[in-house]
Amino acid sequence: MLRELITFEVEGQVFGLDIMSIREIRAWSPTTRLPRVPHYVAGVVNLRGTVLPVVDLAARLGWRPTEPTPRHAIIVTQLGAQVGGWIVDSVSDIVTVPDNTLQPPPPSAGHDTVVPFLDGLAAIDDHMVMVLNLAALADSVQAAEAA
Fold first, then answer.
1. Among 28, 66, 68, 102, which is 20 to 30 Å from 40 by CA?
2. pTM for the whole thing?
């Protein structure tokens, strides 16, 4: 079976998300910061009259927080009824990956902040794409917001 991915960059690393979970890709727009949210929640933006929570993906993965510029993008995803935005450095391409070529992520070193959110790794052209598991990312955000 084939999997279509949108690829994008965060901190110089290439990631992919299943295209079926992508609702739209928006140009960067400033967020309204909220009190008492996890450090990786950048805030909210107005999405055609709906409040859209926006997560700084770099910060969520345990890297330094993004200092957004107009060159950044927000990938809007939908998982069931849950809609959210993810700040990324840039959106790259749409690629097709056969499921049987997806490699499992390496064993986590216990303090690795990225591996728990990966479905696997895909070799595309001359680089590796880390395929994110949106359900794992969204679950962790919901759990942190509920705490």
1. 102
2. 0.89
